[in-house]
Design goal:
303 residues, alpha/beta, Rossmann fold, six-stranded parallel beta sheet, two-stranded parallel ribbon
Length: 303
């Protein structure tokens, strides 16, 4: 499949991931579900990429129904539009949160038992389950991909918050914890999407994990931030028992740290990208995890 000659519709294109795909794929077109005619706009698409989803609730105002309405309800509508269109491939971007959100004992594979905890994770898993239960007409193919945290220029998530903390010279207080987590840079993510579209015939099953080849620790990320900003502020290694006690207080009182947040910040959470690399015959990703993270952090300096 030649991406230059293919019409590719991207639903949920307004975020930094969607914008990166629009820049990367020549004939990609961003489609907004706020447009009452969005279904007619994808009628003649060859590929549909679904990025629509509700992930963050920075104001703390969302309720469970909000997550299911977007992550499940809109997914159903998009899938039906895919069935009614001429598109042969739908790529549904799910999340590692549909599988696991806090910790893993090793690199999680696609067959691992799902253990979502949050409304976000549970709603993303519910969307996966619904999609997997649907019959596909001849000539139609559905792929569900699960990325861990995607980072890159324009990212406004937790990585940006960590950058601001270190860039201001504020000591990192959790350096007594050793952790490794899987990430994926926006460049590696768009590379996987391109490869899926170009080598569609090599893909045989439904769910795939996409991630950088190597995990990174929070300490390694902080080191990158310090090197790029010139900050030499020492980190603080509070005893783990003390930090956990503070987090338990946060489970009751409205302070910045609680047990769930601590697990996300200090837990080991790894996924394997082995399956998709094997099926697409990918030997090496464009960026190592370190170089991809360095590129992202460098983009924060000019924002």
């Amino acid at each position: 499949m030649n991406l230059v000659n293919e019409k590719i519709a991207i639903l949920g294109h307004s975020g930094f991931v969607g914008q990166a795909l629009l820049r990367k794929i020549p004939l990609a077109k961003g489609i907004s579900l706020r447009d009452i005619g969005w279904k007619s706009q994808i009628k003649d698409a060859r590929v549909i990429i679904n990025l629509v989803g509700k992930a963050h609730d920075h104001k703390g105002e969302a309720v469970e129904e909000d997550y299911y309405s977007v992550n499940v309800g809109l997914t159903k509508a998009i899938f039906q539009a895919f069935i009614d269109s001429s598109a042969g491939l739908m790529i549904h971007v799910s999340s590692l949160a549909a599988l696991e959100e806090f910790e893993s004992s090793g690199a999680l594979e696609e067959s691992h038992h799902c253990n979502p905890v949050s409304w976000y994770g549970k709603s993303k898993r519910a969307a996966e389950e619904w999609l997997l239960s649907q019959a596909l007409p001849y000539g139609k193919k559905l792929l569900i991909i699960r990325p861990p945290m995607i980072h890159g220029s324009g990212d406004k998530g937790n990585l940006g918050l960590l950058y601001k903390l270190i860039a201001k010279g504020i000591p990192y207080p959790l350096s007594s914890f050793d952790n490794k987590r899987s990430f994926i840079s926006i460049d590696n993510f768009t590379f996987f999407i391109e490869q899926i579209i170009e080598k569609e015939e090599k893909i045989h099953s439904v769910i795939y994990h996409v991630a950088d080849d190597e995990p990174l620790s929070t300490k390694e990320i902080i080191k990158i931030i310090k090197n790029l900003t010139g900050k030499k502020t020492p980190d603080i290694a509070f005893p783990k028992s003390f930090v956990k006690a503070i987090a338990k207080i946060g489970d009751i009182l409205p302070i910045p740290l609680n047990s769930k947040r601590l697990k996300k910040m200090t837990g080991v959470l790894l996924i394997s990208n082995k399956k998709i690399k094997q099926e697409l015959h990918i030997d090496k990703l464009p960026y190592s995890a370190y170089d991809g993270m360095k590129k992202t952090i460098a983009s924060f300096l000019v924002q």
